[in-house]
Amino acid sequence: MIKVFLCSLLLLLSGLLTAQTIETPTFKVRNGSIRNITRIERTPEYTKVYIHAIFRPHWWIMEDGENYLEDVATGKRYAQTGAEGIELKKETFMPDSGEMDFVLLFEPLPKETQTIHMIDPNSNESNTYDISLVPADPKQPSPLKQVEGNWFADDAQGRWTYGVHDSLVILNNRLYDLTECRKKGKRIVLTARSRTNGSTATLQLTPRKDGSCLIALDGDEAQRYVRTRPGTVAAETDNGYGEDFFRRDSVCLQGYLNGYDPRLGFDSGILYLKDEITRQDYPTVVPINPDGSFQCSFLLRHPVCENLIIRNNIDIPFYAEPGDTVTLYIDWEDVMARSRARDMNYPLSHTAYMGKRPDLSYLATTLNKYFQYPYNQLSEAQKTLTPAQFQERLKPVIDQWQQQADSLSRLYAPSQKAVSLIRNQKATQTGMAYFDFQMDRSYYAQQDTTNQILKVQPDASYYDFLKEMPLNEQSVLVNYGTNFFINRFEFMSPLSIPLQEQINIQNDEAFQALPLEERQLRLQLRFSEKKDSIVNSLCATPSPLLWQIARVRSLHFMLSDVFMQRQYAEAFLTQLEKTVTHPYLRATAREMLEERFPDTPTTSYQLPEGKATDIFRRIIAPHAGKVLFVDFWATTCGPCRAGIKATAKLREQYRNHPEFQFVYITSEAESPLKDYTEYVEKNLKGEASYRLGDTDYKYLRQLFRFNGIPHYVVVEKDGSICTENVEAYNLASFLQQRFGTEQKRTE
């Protein structure tokens, strides 16, 4: 009896000894933060993973039961067996708090398993990698862990001065490789080598009990630094923008994405850069290294506020001037929190900046949220209010924006550059509200012909807001989104030439007797003169700077689609220069003319050597020796699908042509696999279709300089790129000119 009791006790103890609970297990990286692992219980019968879910209140989540745990050492998977506190395969709506707890059950793990992944094969924001099942010892942190993080000056300026992250150190607005970390008494000594010039820097860090740190660089006197910056970074003193506002120089954007891992499924970001004067796109790929660091360079023509775009369309604002180096710190947990919130204005609270003007970068992160007219309110107003009623509706909103602008301006008063950013943002958003209300009403009027309110047109007083706007201030070009305002300004309703007037001019017998381009020139000069007159009547200053920019922007279309001979383009530009008086704009317009009509005309150009060209050459290699019409498109792009539909007959006509081939290129991010497969099967079956990874597609955007789609490229037989402007609408005439009839077609 005693032996039986002892055996039973041993078995019971054995079972207890094999059970294990890990509280708040550590992990290396995760691609989403809706599911947060708070505890893991291991027994011989099961593995329990406790989840604390955070999501938008009243939005639903769903657990499909297809998760699995993967043993990192062996690669073996352990299936999910059930759940507690949540019903599988059912939409579960979040409570008012936006938080709930439940448990996922899995097969038992071997006792020797120390590290696991938790994978959801059906979600792109539910995977957690390298979860440790070995409880961490808080009493023995590594020397680096004691000083890891960002360190800010302990003063009103609160400048980000040092960043200590894994194998990377950031200081002096440079990235350094960490080469040594050792403890010397109470101090931790770091040695780092600059990635820029190979120089060495030594940091001596002394952590203090209050969480601050004394840091000395290269033997200098130690200063006190803290891990948190002031809520509002103090503005630096300046006198605003001077005569050197327009200047061309490169910018280096570099930084560190903390928490990055290649398993997150992306290895690049992108800058959707655009010259708002010439309308030229120049997207720039930002490669992300496996350690989370990144660096790129691009050309600027004046100071700007721009956005770095990383996964899930998360935009990270920054401010830069030509010649600057801007260093940016991004926290991946912040990025996931914004994605989880499904709110593009959700604050990225740990973002930090180094450079000449970090204060303006911090300001850029906050400006959008202060001056926004909600889209749903605007849409409702367009259908229910007359223009005069909308003016009244908007007045208190503008007053509130003005109060916010005044308050911010007082806070940033030492910097005239900052004050101009604030006031210009308020002004352009005011203008956008007025323009967008009137622009979209015409669309709604076509959809609902019975709505009498939509037929009410504004009188001239509706555009009085233009007299209050800084249309003659070059600093407006710094603000992100000014490009959209100029577009609205350029095509506002008062500038629409009545159709009947166009018909009367074109039906004149003397006019019809002129050569085609002469007719085009006279029409454009007449319309330009009329538009100049209208703008001068609506604005406080004749030919304000932003209107001059709009006129130069129009030159892009004139040179590419209207004037085929230099003499007519020259005549149009000469007339344009009566309105465009700014020296930089005049010079830019002349450059555009010379680029369109060079002394030595070329019909094609060779692609530059590099990664992007290698990607493109691999795609077109199977079609060597043919002229290629390359269509960059996406299933999510309506105009792209319209272009594909419009060229359906041409594809049939030139199918199997020995000298010509259609090629279609899209990306995984913009064309989800299911939609892509279905669309190609129905509309592009048998065509040369390619669906690229996100980074490869970004490099092609950079190579061919396009932000928007559809975008078309013609490749000559020798692999060079045709300079002729060929798009879906004029493709038929291009093919007729190149190949004549269908006689060369082979079945």
Low-confidence stretches: 1-17, 743-747
Structural class: alpha+beta
Query: How much beta, percentage-wise?
Result: 15-25%
Gyration radius from CA atoms, angstroms: 31 Å
What level of helicity do the residues show?
A: 25-40%
Overall 3D geometry?
globular
Tell me the distance between the termini.
92 Å
Biggest sheet strand order reads 1-3-4-9-7-6-10-11-2
Number of helical segments?
A: 20
The overall strand count is 33
Structure description:
This protein is of the alpha+beta class and 747 residues long. The chain contains 20 helices and 33 strands. The strands form eight sheets. Strands 1-3-4-9-7-6-10-11-2 form a nine-stranded antiparallel β-sheet. An eight-stranded antiparallel β-barrel has the order 12-13-14-15-16-17-18-19. Strands 23-20-26-27 form a four-stranded mixed β-sheet. β16 and β17 form a beta hairpin. α5 crosses α7 and α8 (482-490) packs across α12 (545-562). 31% of the residues are buried.
